[in-house]
Amino acid sequence: MAVSDISGAGPPSSSPPIHIQIPLAHPSRDEVLRRRWRSVSRNGYAHVHSLRFPKQYTTGQFRCWIDPATIGDITVSDQYGDAVEGISGGTDRMGAAQRLAVVHIIRSGGLSLTAAGRTVHVPPGMLCVRDAGMPWEFSTLPGTRWQVLQLPYEALASTGLDQLPTLALVPQTAPEARLLTGQLQVTREARSELTPAGLRAAEQSVLHLVAGTLMAQGVSADSAFRPSLRAAARNCADARLTDPDLSPAEIAKALSVSVRTLHRAFSEADESLMAYVRRRRLERARQELATLGGRYTLSAVAARWHFADASHFSRAFKRQFGETPSSLTR
Fold first, then answer.
1. Nearest CA to 140 among 52, 42, 224?
2. What is the mean pLDDT of each run of 10 residues along the chain (330 residues)?
3. In this structure, are 81 and 194 located in the same domain?
4. What DSSP letter does each residue of 243-277 carry, written as one string?
5. Residue that terminates a domain, selected from 177, 195, 214
6. Regarding beta strands 136-140 and 111-115, do their DSSP bridges make them parallel or antiparallel, or are they unpaired?
7. Residues 83 and 179 occupy one common structural domain
8. CATH of the domain at 315
9. Is 40 domain-assigned?
10. What is the pLDDT of residue 44?
């Protein structure tokens, strides 16, 4: 029984599509799959390993293709595959020092991810962002078609994203997700014509759209993924610190979760959501005072950052920083 070769041995930016075809009745099919995948993983997919075929599929052909490209340090690939299982992620097995964020944009079929004893199913029409620094067991349905992005976490953090969620699920109909998928399509179509400056701009655009999608949209309310909800809530709060109506109810509404779910997520944290908001407002106020000196009165700064009055602001400021705000304006 013949097994097809894999084409595409060069770097992702210049490789032709990669094709794998294996008869499911092959007596050593799992070993053949792993051997073939080792050739693929050298081209930037080392975070996917321990591949095997689901036991229920024993006839016909397994087919998989990957059409890779790069946008700066971002790897983008259009993929199709039949049913397969394995492990994705884990810093001790990734074969690289970089911590990755992986984005799956599911077109057909489906993806299941399991970590910390919880399983999440990602159907067509969903966008999934996950931290590849931890290992995930995964399985795909036959005929799964998706677009996959691999982004260095450091690059994503440079956009202002404080923490990479463990797992975030976003409908592809969400405005930010639609902008992201549209940007990816335009960039792939125009990539060969872009100047180095244009390519850097496209890379930054994709990074900011992924970060914006995470900040603006919901995450799993499952207890195993509460860290991602806390990160999304903090990012949402940071973007609205000057908003006088900022509250747990407004943040919960923005993240498409209940206020109870939001409070439950922060019950495991060192500070509550509104304690975080107060601390961040004080930090921003301190930056303004240190930069602008005496240009503004304490009353004006207190009002801008939504403290009741200058006295209230001064007391909170001293508790936080061990000094009075007036000491920065002398």
1. 52
2. 35 65 95 88 75 94 92 92 90 54 94 84 90 88 95 84 77 87 90 88 91 68 62 83 91 76 82 93 88 76 89 90 79
3. yes
4. -TT--HHHHHHHHTS-HHHHHHHHTTSSS-HHHHH
5. 214
6. antiparallel
7. yes
8. 1.10.10.60
9. no
10. 67
